[in-house]
Design goal:
mainly alpha, Four Helix Bundle (Hemerythrin (Met), subunit A), 2 strands, about 5% strand
């Protein structure tokens, strides 16, 4: 194991054991390096690496702290990698969405409060009659993000959110080129919302699967 990897592993173990909790400040560099049996250079490289993936927060003049370790922070690094996708991988992202979004939608049917369901209805109502493709896609993103948040699982919500970017262009393509895409999207959103409001997770799951699979099927034919 490389020295930097060993240093990363030792800091990770301190966090996992509870010795360092979210928000805690790390000991002084000299003290921590001596305690862990590391060189100061190896420790610095480990701190830089862990800061890049939002495990540590280096505050100039104040010290180095463990972040909140919230899922949305830790998954930002994945979002960065996802942004460099190629067009021919969009189908793979859609396949992952087809696995995750129906599960999140089924969970939302169980966990969303009445106020959150009402807000989902408002998102649908915000879409004007005869919307542009841009308006439809923006509304679509809001709709699915609200459902993912309503699943009650922050990790699942963050994963779905990180997958939204690569599939946005496919949604726009479909809206521009597929006849009836705007009406179909609106109808499926209403069906998903109705199933969530009725507290019927399996119907909600089924409609979400149909919804995401429709974009995927269209893209396969187009490509």
């Amino acid at each position: 194991m490389a020295l930097t990897d060993a240093a990363i592993d030792k800091i990770k173990q301190m966090i996992m054991s509870g010795e360092l909790a979210p928000g805690d400040r790390l000991p002084r560099e000299t003290d921590l390096a001596e305690r862990l049996g590391l060189s100061r250079n190896s420790l610095r490289e480990a701190v830089r690496a862990l800061a890049l993936i939002n495990v540590l927060d280096v505050r100039q003049g104040d010290g180095t702290f463990v972040t909140s370790l919230q899922p949305h922070l830790l998954l930002e690094a994945m979002s960065f990698v996802v942004d460099f996708h190629r067009d021919d991988t969009v189908l793979q992202f859609l396949e992952v969405r087809r696995v995750l979004e129906p599960a999140a939608t089924a969970m939302a049917a169980v966990h969303m409060s009445e106020a959150e369901v009402a807000e989902l209805r408002l998102i649908l109502d915000d879409l004007p009659d005869g919307p542009s493709v841009t308006e439809l896609v923006a509304n679509d993103l809001r709709f699915h993000k609200h459902i993912a948040a309503g699943s009650g699982n922050p990790v699942l919500c963050s994963l779905i959110d990180s997958l939204s970017g690569p599939t946005t262009r496919a949604r726009v393509w479909r809206g521009l080129t597929q006849e009836g895409a705007l009406e179909k999207t609106r109808e499926q959103h209403v069906a998903i919302c109705d199933a969530i409001a009725a507290r019927n997770p399996e119907v909600a799951r089924a409609w979400a699967t149909v919804h995401v699979a429709g974009v995927e099927e269209w893209l396969r034919r187009t490509l």
